[in-house]
């Protein structure tokens, strides 16, 4: 009877999970598998016929000098967003981890930009940089200068995503037992010492989430760049994701575009996975 009941319960669980699994396979799994197969071809995305080129596209990637700038831009953007967004988000969380009047309102205000779409944020800040900030300070748009375009795009991410980072850190801060702070106070710990030895160690799980997420989001950034600059001026803001888009849709080289996308996916997994593993080890040690 117990075995029969267990089989029945498992069957119900499978029935509830099946629609989500089927939808995931149809929307994510099948296109990914098809794209992986296309990376071994010279398909142009238009005709029904194509040739199998084996690993030629994968070898071409390492011989293609035009991919170096998108890689550099993606890493540069990622480095800025990982550092700045986490610092600002943590600072906001520390400031708003209080119970004074208006705290909830401020939290909501800082989080609201995160519900805006990437594309809308890109278009909005394209206007802000050119027509508002440029007019106020009598300067040309930061998006039009090759030296400032990547930091300017990172600024869009800061405005939109810092509120999300703040929420993750707030949840971690509020989960820290008050007893820890009382014990530190009784031991005569300073404010800086309390932050270093009590707050920071307990924020390790939040660091793991935020840093891993922004490493992944940074490497595959597309929407902000496409909406704000289209990769310009010139190709000074072209990222790996935009590079994949252009080869796949503009240049009709789907096979090579899919190959670059697979390399980008590997890079995301390596960076985000390494960061998550690094912080998990520190979390266990604490």
UniProtKB/TrEMBL annotation:
Sorted UniProt keywords: Cell membrane, Membrane, Transmembrane, Transmembrane helix, Transport
InterPro entries: ABC_transporter_permease, MetI-like, MetI-like_sf
Pfam families xrefs: BPD_transp_1
Domain ABC transmembrane type-1: 71-277
GO cellular component, one term: plasma membrane
Subcellular location: Cell membrane
SUPFAM superfamilies in the record: MetI-like
Chief site of localization: membrane
Superkingdom assignment: Bacteria
Key word Membrane present: yes
Stretches that traverse the bilayer: 12-29, 75-96, 108-129, 149-176, 197-219, 260-279
Keyword Membrane: yes
PANTHER family documented for this protein: ABC TRANSPORTER PERMEASE PROTEIN, INNER MEMBRANE ABC TRANSPORTER PERMEASE PROTEIN YCJO
Annotated family: Belongs to the binding-protein-dependent transport system permease family.
Protein name per the record: ABC transporter permease protein AmyD
Gene: amyD_3
